């Protein structure tokens, strides 16, 4: 009853998107006809990273698989095309509009439809289930921010979740949340987070030499990389950087904002502390580097830039945004600092802190003190080698999930 009501409501909900429908549907209809073995839906860049790990593991086990990866956002789609387009089919995701969903499923005819993490589109789930596809929620997670909202909708969520054949959860915490929302406990498998898979392999694709040249950096110069900084964190960072440059004048800082829509407020905060900065794009255009703070105004470089760091701070964690991937700098053997709000990466934080490779900072004074401890090699800061150990220990989740996916691929629907 509730899902039928949702299907009716979405006819009006998606009406403003109707002009975009033909282009998205055309991309789906231009795909080779189904059946596809697996259809992964990844909302954006983070979920595409999971798809990359799963596709890599699956094709290693069965190179003949027919796989489709879709993404909702343009940035996710761009990354999927670059990293997966030579191995599998890639297309934009259709909106959760009943007629559009039916047309897409008619073309793709997936044996398995696998939303990634928390991609619960009711019309797609109901229609795919009705056509006999296995539904697997891979890298399944329910954030602490979403959980109370979903719990208020438990009857609706339970009706959706009962359509799934399996939930491949990233941890026991997320498994319990799924069960509380109505997922059948016998269908929940705890597999670990595939987002942490293959970080060591990704390092081999990074050529750091051109970065040293572009940034006019020497190997000896201490570098702090600030990754995925969110608006609202810049003042704490700027205050800390002022103190750090007073203590370590040779310090070099790279700041990669999570989004590129607030570069001016970021640079304004830096100027407010008397700090000059330049955009990375300026250096690319041939402008000589004059500043010791570079703001990365391009996407897709952060993982490789962590390889330049002596110490890293991962943003989205000083304010309640859940953090970002703490193990990316750790994979390089870089000590990792982060704020207290890391709910999206609880397992990674636990690993880092258990090993001694990561440390929480709560203020500009904390950040300054801990960066100085790392740079001086004192015992007051986390260890890069211990961070690398944590990243290595987190691997294996993609392989575990891929094996389960293949089991369901050969199984009949109950």
Computed over alpha carbons, the radius of gyration is: 23 Å
| C-alpha end-to-end distance | 23 Å
Strand order of the biggest β-sheet: 3-2-1-4-5-6-7
CATH superfamily grouping of the largest domain = 3-Deoxy-D-manno-octulosonic-acid transferase, N-terminal domain
SSE arrangement:
Elements: H1 2-13, H2 21-29, E1 38-42, H3 45-61, E2 67-71, H4 74-84, E3 89-92, H5 98-108, E4 112-115, H6 122-130, E5 134-140, H7 146-152, H8 154-161, E6 166-169, H9 172-180, E7 188-190, H10 199-203, H11 209-215, E8 223-229, H12 234-247, E9 252-257, H13 263-272, E10 278-279, H14 280-284, E11 293-295, H15 302-305, E12 311-314, H16 327-331, E13 336-338, H17 346-355, E14 358-360, H18 364-376, H19 384-393, H20 397-409
Parallel strand pairs: 1-2, 1-4, 2-3, 4-5, 5-6, 6-7, 8-9, 8-12, 9-11, 10-11, 12-13, 13-14
Helix pairs in contact: 2-5, 3-4, 3-20, 5-6, 12-13, 12-18, 17-19
GO molecular function: Kdo transferase activity
Pathway: Bacterial outer membrane biogenesis; LPS core biosynthesis
Family: Belongs to the glycosyltransferase group 1 family.
């Amino acid at each position: 009853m509730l899902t039928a009501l949702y299907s009716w409501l979405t006819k009006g909900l998606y009406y403003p998107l109707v002009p975009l429908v033909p282009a998205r549907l055309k991309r789906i209809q231009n795909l080779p006809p189904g059946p596809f073995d697996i259809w992964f839906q990844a909302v954006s860049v983070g979920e595409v990273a999971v798809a990359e790990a799963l596709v890599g593991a699956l094709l290693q086990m069965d190179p003949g698989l027919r796989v489709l990866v879709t993404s909702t956002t343009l940035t996710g789609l761009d990354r999927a095309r670059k990293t997966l387009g030579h191995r599998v089919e890639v297309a934009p995701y259709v909106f959760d509009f009943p007629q559009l969903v039916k047309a897409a499923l008619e073309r793709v005819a997936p044996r398995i439809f696998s939303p990634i993490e928390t991609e619960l589109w009711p019309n797609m789930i109901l229609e795919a289930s009705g056509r006999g596809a296995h539904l697997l929620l891979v890298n399944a997670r329910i954030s602490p921010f979403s959980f109370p909202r979903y719990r208020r909708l438990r009857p609706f969520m339970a009706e959706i979740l009962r359509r799934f054949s399996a939930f491949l959860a990233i941890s026991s915490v997320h498994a319990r949340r799924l069960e509380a929302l109505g997922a059948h406990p016998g269908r929940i498998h705890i597999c670990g987070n595939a987002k942490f898979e293959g970080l060591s392999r990704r390092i081999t694709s990074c050529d750091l030499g051109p970065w040293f040249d572009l940034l006019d950096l020497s190997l000896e110069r201490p570098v702090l990389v600030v990754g995925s900084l969110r608006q609202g964190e810049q003042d704490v960072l700027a205050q800390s950087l002022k103190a750090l440059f007073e203590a370590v004048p040779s310090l070099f800082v790279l700041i990669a904002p999570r989004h590129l829509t607030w570069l001016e407020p970021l640079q304004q905060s830096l100027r407010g502390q008397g700090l000059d900065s330049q955009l990375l794009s300026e250096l690319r255009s041939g402008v000589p580097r004059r500043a010791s703070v570079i703001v990365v105004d391009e996407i897709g470089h952060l993982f490789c830039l962590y390889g330049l760091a002596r110490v890293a701070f991962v943003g989205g964690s000083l304010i309640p945004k859940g953090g970002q991937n703490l193990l990316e700098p750790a994979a390089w053997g870089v000590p990792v600092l982060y704020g207290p709000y890391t709910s999206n990466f609880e397992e990674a934080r636990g690993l880092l802190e258990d090993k001694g490779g990561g440390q929480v900072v709560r203020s500009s004074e904390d950040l300054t003190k801990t960066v100085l401890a790392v740079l001086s090699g004192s015992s007051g800061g986390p260890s890069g080698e211990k961070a690398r150990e944590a990243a290595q220990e987190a691997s294996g989740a993609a392989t575990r999930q891929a094996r389960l996916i293949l089991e369901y691929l050969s199984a009949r629907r109950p």
